[in-house]
Amino acid sequence: MIPLCFLAVLAAVGGLAAVGLALSTAAASALLLAAPLLGLVSLASGLAAAVLALRRTSVFA
Predict the structure, then answer these.
(1) I need a surface site. Which of 6, 29, 45, 57 has the fewest CB within 10 A?
(2) Angle ∠(45,50,7) on CA atoms, nearest 5
(3) What is the DSSP string of 40-58?
(4) pLDDT, tens digit (0-9, with 9 covering 90-100), for 19-41
Protein backbone atom coordinates (compact mmCIF):
# COMPACT_ATOMS: atom_id res chain seq x y z
CA MET A 1 0.00 0.00 0.00
CA ILE A 2 2.83 2.41 0.81
CA PRO A 3 4.44 2.00 -2.65
CA LEU A 4 1.08 2.75 -4.27
CA CYS A 5 0.70 5.91 -2.20
CA PHE A 6 4.25 6.92 -3.10
CA LEU A 7 3.51 6.37 -6.79
CA ALA A 8 0.31 8.41 -6.54
CA VAL A 9 2.07 11.38 -4.96
CA LEU A 10 5.03 11.13 -7.33
CA ALA A 11 2.77 11.07 -10.39
CA ALA A 12 0.72 14.01 -9.10
CA VAL A 13 3.84 16.09 -8.52
CA GLY A 14 5.14 15.05 -11.94
CA GLY A 15 1.90 16.18 -13.56
CA LEU A 16 2.09 19.51 -11.79
CA ALA A 17 5.70 19.93 -12.91
CA ALA A 18 4.75 19.02 -16.49
CA VAL A 19 2.08 21.72 -16.55
CA GLY A 20 4.46 24.24 -15.01
CA LEU A 21 7.11 23.45 -17.61
CA ALA A 22 4.56 23.51 -20.43
CA LEU A 23 3.58 27.04 -19.51
CA SER A 24 7.15 28.27 -19.74
CA THR A 25 8.73 26.34 -22.64
CA ALA A 26 8.28 25.86 -26.36
CA ALA A 27 7.61 22.11 -26.02
CA ALA A 28 4.20 22.78 -24.54
CA SER A 29 2.20 20.32 -26.64
CA ALA A 30 4.18 17.24 -25.58
CA LEU A 31 4.22 18.27 -21.94
CA LEU A 32 0.53 19.07 -21.89
CA LEU A 33 -0.16 15.57 -23.23
CA ALA A 34 1.96 14.05 -20.46
CA ALA A 35 0.09 15.82 -17.65
CA PRO A 36 -3.25 13.94 -18.04
CA LEU A 37 -1.41 10.62 -18.27
CA LEU A 38 0.42 11.36 -15.04
CA GLY A 39 -2.90 12.36 -13.49
CA LEU A 40 -4.42 9.07 -14.57
CA VAL A 41 -1.52 7.13 -13.04
CA SER A 42 -1.92 9.11 -9.83
CA LEU A 43 -5.66 8.49 -9.68
CA ALA A 44 -5.35 4.77 -10.42
CA SER A 45 -2.62 4.12 -7.87
CA GLY A 46 -4.38 6.22 -5.24
CA LEU A 47 -7.61 4.29 -5.76
CA ALA A 48 -5.75 0.98 -5.63
CA ALA A 49 -4.13 2.01 -2.34
CA ALA A 50 -7.55 2.98 -0.96
CA VAL A 51 -9.03 -0.37 -1.97
CA LEU A 52 -6.17 -2.20 -0.29
CA ALA A 53 -6.58 -0.11 2.84
CA LEU A 54 -10.32 -0.79 3.02
CA ARG A 55 -9.86 -4.53 2.47
CA ARG A 56 -7.40 -4.91 5.34
CA THR A 57 -8.75 -6.08 8.64
CA SER A 58 -8.43 -3.54 11.38
CA VAL A 59 -6.19 -4.39 14.31
CA PHE A 60 -8.55 -2.43 16.57
CA ALA A 61 -11.70 -4.39 15.71
Answers:
(1) 57
(2) 25
(3) HHHHHHHHHHHHHHHHSPP
(4) 888 887 776 777 778 888 888 99
Which residues have CB under 8 Å from 5's CB, separation 6+?
A: 45, 46, 49
Are 12 and 42 in contact by the 8 Å Cβ rule? The answer is yes
Do 8 and 45 contact (CB within 8 A), yes or no? yes
Q: How confident is the model at residue 45 (pLDDT cuts 50, 70, 90)?
A: very high
**Non-local CB neighbours of 28 within 8 Å, separated by 6+ positions:** 22
Backbone angles phi, psi at 7, to 5 degrees: -65, -40
Answer for the pair 24, 1: CB distance below 8 angstroms, yes or no: no
